[in-house]
């Protein structure tokens, strides 16, 4: 009597076909695996479809999604939402446009036993569906916003996903919603930071003064979120505001984080400022770390090495080696 294949057997077989790289075989194996009884095998099949962007498999993914979404015992059919999450992610990668499916998926919850209170394992489903809905061409922006605002009532992760999905629409209609959320505040700094990043992406000129003002917030976590958003923005006025914030701050941890945000911009003023801090015992290591993104530029790399050659500090050399790798650091030995 032949031994029944285990979940591990079926996963190994699917991955073996995937690794062989024959598209027709991969497609057939992945579609077949979507009908498996194990959510782990289904999830792997969906990931393979997304990895190879196997167009034409959308009906199979949707059919499997419906079967799992409507199952009377979701913990039995898909513990941890492993399969449903993978299916939504793959549908997104395939640019599958079905707003009704995504709207329904954004209501998905699945509470599972956990230490303390039950844990909702469907957050990634709701987030992935929100991002797919943001890209949909078959639904009005107002209907998208209604769905995203509803998601704003959820968990911290839901709120972050909602704000980022709104930003992904690229619509100016989102701007007042983000401003309202920013003014009304949130218990979690990451949510506030997502609003600031979204506003700088959608309406940089008008939002810059607003975000800069948050560098004076009483909550250090809000300050750091504003700094990160401004650093990614990289505009000269953002860099100037960050440098001013650093100069008036005395908290060592906040100062270090501000330097890292300054380094994100790769702006010339930012680079000059950070290189100037290499001569400071208190701030040199953080400044060096902040300069790492700009080290891709040969001129900046050379300037940093030139400054460090004048400083007898083995710790800075070790820091630079950790950041860039020993092969990318060449300093003359001091006598």
List the helices and strands and how they pair.
Blueprint: H1 7-20, H2 23-33, H3 39-52, H4 58-69, H5 74-77, H6 82-93, H7 99-105, E1 111-112, E2 119-120, H8 123-135, H9 141-151, H10 156-169, H11 174-184, H12 189-202, H13 204-213, H14 220-233, H15 236-248, H16 252-264, H17 268-276, H18 284-290, H19 298-309, H20 314-324
Antiparallel strand pairs: 1-2
Helix pairs in contact: 1-2, 1-3, 2-3, 3-6, 4-6, 6-8, 7-8, 8-9, 8-10, 9-10, 10-12, 11-12, 12-13, 12-14, 13-14, 14-16, 15-16, 16-18, 18-20
List keywords for this structure.
335 residues, mainly alpha, 1% strand, disordered C terminus, 20 helices
Query: Strand order within the widest sheet?
Result: 1-2
How helical, in percent, are the residues? 55-70%
Strand content: under 5%
The average pLDDT is 93
Q: What does the largest sheet look like? A: 2 strands, antiparallel
State the distance separating the first and last CA atoms.
79 Å
Q: Helical segment tally? A: 20
Q: What is the chain-wise order of helices and strands? A: HHHHHHHEEHHHHHHHHHHHHH
Write down how many β-strands occur, each being a DSSP E stretch of 2 or more residues: 2
Radius of gyration: 25 Å
